[in-house]
Amino acid sequence: MNIKIGMLSPIAWRTPPRHYGPWESFVSVLTEGLVNYGLDVTLFATADSQTKAKLRAVCKRGYEEDPSIEPKVWESLHISEVFEHADEFDIIHNNFDFLPLTYSALVSTPVVTTIHGFSSPRIYPVYQKYNGRVFYVSISMADRLDSLDYIANVYHGIDISRFTFQPRTGEYLLFFGRIHNDKGAREAIRIARASGMKLVMAGIIQDRQYYEKEVEPFIDGTNVIYVGSVGPEKRDKLLGNAYALLHPINFNEPFGLSVVEAMACGTPVIAFNRGSMPELITPGVNGFLVNDENEAVNALLDVPKIDRSLCRKVVEERFTSDRMVRDYIEVYTRIVNTTRI
Asked: Disulfide-capable partner of 34 in 39, 62, 72, 206 (CB 3.0 to 4.6 Å)?
C-alpha cells in the first residue's frame, strides 16, 4: 500500500539533531526508515534538516540554535504549513505535542499523534478534547492517560548499527542526559562519590541555576568530569566504555533513549524504578531497578555479574528502529483501511 505521510517534526533543533534533540532524533529515525520501506514521506522540519524524504521547511534553523528565531511565531508558521497541505497526504503524523491537535478538526486527513510525554497535567484538556478524532500512540504503557484512547503503544527504536557493542566492562560510571533535576544529575554525583568510582557526565545544561548549585562544585576533572553535549561518535564511545549508566530520574520518564542506547553498547543501566523503566530494564539481565541512592550503590557491586551481550540482545529483540518502523506502518495501514471511503 502506497501511503503518503506528512511528518511533522519539532523545530527546536535540526532533524536529525547535531547533538541534543530527542524528538527530532525520533522523527529522523522513523522518517528514514519509512522511506526505506517505500513510503512517500514529506518531512516538515527546519530547512537545514537532512533526509531522504521530501523536505518542506518554512523555518531556516532550529530556534535553540539561532536566538534570532522567535519560537512561537515560527512554530505557528511551521504547524500551519502541514495542515494547509493536508489534502496531499493520507496521514499527518504529528510529533509536535499538543498544538497541532487544534488544527485536526479543520481537515479531513487523519492525524496520528505520538505522545512523547506530558509536560504538565495542564495540557491534558487539549488531548482530551480531540480524543476520538486524533489517533494517539503512546511510547510506553506507563505514560498512558486513562481518559485517552490509544490506537497502539510503540516503543522507540534506535539504529543499532550506530552503537558498537563493547564486551569488556568499563571503569567509569556515566550520566548521559539533560543537566536538570528531572534527570537526577545531583543524585548521580552522590552515587558515584559513595561508590568511589569516577563519573563522566554528558548532556546539555538545561537548568543553569541547578547546574551551578548542584553539579559544577563537584566537577574536578578527575573524579567528576563534565564533557558537555556530545555528538554520535563520542556518544558511542562514552556509552560503550562505561561500567554502567546511572539513570536516577526524579520524574516518571515516558521512555529513556539513553537507556536503550547504553544497552545497545552492552552497558548495563542502574535506574530509579519510575515511569517506563520497568518496561525497559529486566533486573539482573540488562541492569537494575533501584529505589534510592543507597540501593544504587549496592547494585553497582553486582554489575560484573551481568552478561553484556544480553544487554545488546534485549535491544536487538525489542528496540530496533526497524521494529519501530514496521509497527508504525501497521498503525498507518489500520488507519487508512478504516478511514478511506
From this structure: 39
The domain containing residue 109 runs over which residues? 4-157+320-339
What sign has the CA pseudo-torsion 96, 100, 101, 102? Answer: positive
Q: How far apart are CA 78 and CA 55, in angstroms?
A: 12
Query: Roughly what angle, to the nearest 10 degrees, separates helices 257-264 and 22-36?
Result: 60
For the chain, how many structural domains are there in total?
Answer: 2
Confidence band of 292 (pLDDT split at 50, 70, 90): very high
186-229 per-position pLDDT tens digit: 999 999 999 999 999 999 999 999 999 999 999 999 999 999 99
Distance, CA of 332 to CA of 314 (rounded, Å): 26
DSSP 202: E
CB 191 within 8 A of CB 164: no
Half-sphere exposure of 112 (CA within 13 A, CB side): 28
pLDDT digits (tens, 9 = 90+) for 7-16: 999 999 999 9
pTM comes to 0.93
pLDDT in tens, 85-98: 999 999 999 999 99
C-alpha distances (whole Å) from 295 to each of 13, 15, 190, 287 are 37, 38, 12, 13
Beta-bridge mates of residue 245: 174, 269
Coil, strand or helix at 83: helix
- Same-domain pairing of 99 and 204: no
Give the span between the Cα atoms of 75 and 53, in whole angstroms.
21
DSSP for 150-210, please give it. Answer: EEEE----B-GGGS----S--SEEEEES-BSGGGTHHHHHHHHHHHT--EEEES-BS-HHH
Q: What is the dihedral of CA 270, 271, 276, 281, to 10 degrees?
A: 20
Question: In a 10 Å sphere around its CB, with 0-12 CB exposed, 13-18 middle and 19+ buried, how is residue 72 labelled?
Answer: exposed
